[in-house]
DNA sequence: GCCATCTTTGGGAGCGCTCCCAACCGTATT
DNA sequence: AATACGGTTGGGAGCGCTCCCAAAGATGGC
């Protein structure tokens, strides 16, 4: 295996200097005749510039990191993260960069991964998601002099760049829809209250109910995003005889549907179900879930674009908020106000 | 923002040379007194070595690439890839490396991503998966002088390192189980025949049936891994009045179950269903799916370990084959030979 | 007390690239 | 004809690190 060739070698073969070859590769000003000759040599030799050398000299790696600090084991049971990865990956490819994935487990390796994330010369910037309230990761990033964008709404929202969906407005829409359907004993399966999405969806739903003169009273349970938690939460709620329930995530809603049928009840006849996410393929459940759809892929794409602008030196912290959309299907028992923006 | 500090700076502060600091960082031989002093400076200044410089000098990046050339849009509808990413990610972290993700879309960017994968100085090696028969990507990798490992069974299995599961034996087990249950009109929903998994599962199932003196006759359809394709395949198969069906993937099986119930039939009473993968959470379906379970996470982990050995200079192409396990649940209508190794 | 040996340390060379400045060419301007 | 000026090109310097060799100091055997 002969030595890899470098700019100098290519230049020698083409009868030009290293610098000229570099210009051809990077699109600088070169006479067309020279350019043609150099390109011929490149094609013939299969020369490819060395990424590490480039990074070192240009102080930019062309790599974006996606950091998901979650109990890794169950991460992909929720299609949310897959979609987010998809969105970031496609946007990353589009801008000609590479995506590095940092998934934290619960292991002792966690802190070593965190420090790897902020290693200089590894990535140009980082997208952080799935953080909880008061997550030390955010502080760590801020102290590390590494461009980053948060997906979600961090505590320190004022001083960081972030991309989020309007969880609150979306949940409010769900409440209004249920109220419009004439349901009077709504229940809530909330998402973890140590996440901004969990808090916002809960508050939004309660607000929406209040507008309609309704209340969940004690018909409220908190799940942990898992299907099983949705199921047990629903089973407990059933004691309060709700006629509607807003479940803060698709995945928990699948569990809730199961609990409903296990209790011998029928959805939507006995109880309307509306979920949040719109990620689980509708055909997966019977009845198909009515849900507040959030544009996850777009969020991922936008996060990448925002990050590139931060890397490019964007100054003022910017917040991007995507709106949700209510997709009415069978589980709510009525196509009342049709699909409507949130 | 002052200049990043480098080895030289740290050395100056600690009163030693660049080389000594390097030894402290990388665990070379240094007197304990010197070591203490240098470590103090590092802790105090928060010095972190520059990854690109390191890569350039040492000719090794510490990054592993995971390449999934699939129609990206539907990629994560199948939990398989999530699991695989999880497995590779955790093993990558364990060996102190970083994972880069290359997801191809169908876009025109595809070839540019392919070439990025083999860029020298970007990754040390690559794990390739989800390739089809005759996939040019494999050839491309072989020509590129880049260490790589294939997850699955490539055409050129003889000359490449790969990690696979014994699809054939697993499918055979499914056939035997169905036969043992007394089913006599088995059907097959195959996976795409341009993939080795599709071919092996089909052949394995047919072999297993033959051993038991059974045959699918014309009760065979091919799906495209999607839930919808499983549903339409099953709907068509129903005309042949099968009393059992082996579905080559969980996801297609979910669709098949739906078709069964839409036809007013009952699974498992009227028809036994056995699937392959064991990835969809059992509680997602009613009845819960009996399936041939493949250890996806372990496959991913093993692929990383194999790749590191290839990077380290492993010589003879090695094949790792994982065995599957039949998880008997309700969809097959009988706990006959219990859970059994394949 | 001298030389061989080991441990510890310093610094040169070089990885392959980008960035910048100077040199050079031919042509247009005065 | 002398000067000026774009368009091209070459090469020095340097990015921050690792690798290697040699120097210096410590130790021990004879």
Written description of the protein model:
- The structure is a homodimer of 342-residue chains.
- With 342 residues, chain A is α/β, with parallel strands linked by helices.
- Chain A folds into three domains: 7-49, 434 Repressor (Amino-terminal Domain) (Orthogonal Bundle), CATH 1.10.260.40; 63-165 and 297-322, Response regulator (Rossmann fold, 3-Layer(aba) Sandwich); 167-294 and 325-341, Response regulator (Rossmann fold, 3-Layer(aba) Sandwich), CATH 3.40.50.2300.
- Helix content of chain A is 41%, strand content 17%.
- Chain A has helices spanning 7-14, 18-26, 32-45, 51-58, 79-94, 110-117, 136-143, 167-180, 196-211, 227-237, 250-262, 296-311, and strands at 63-69, 98-104, 125-129, 148-151, 161-165, 186-190, 220-222, 244-247, 272-277, 290-293, 319-322, 325-327, 340-341.
- In chain A, the strands form two sheets. Chain A has a seven-stranded mixed sheet, sandwiched between helices.
- In chain A, helix 10 packs across helix 11.
- The longest helix of chain A is centred in the first third of the chain and has 16 residues, at 79-94.
- The radius of gyration of chain A is 25 Å and the shape is elongated.
- Chain A starts with 6 loop residues before the first helix and ends with a strand.
- In chain A, 53% of the residues are buried.
- Mean pLDDT of chain A is 89; it is low at 336-342.
- Strand 2 (98-104) of chain A pairs antiparallel with strand 2 (98-104) of chain B.
- The structure holds a DNA duplex (30 and 30 nucleotides).
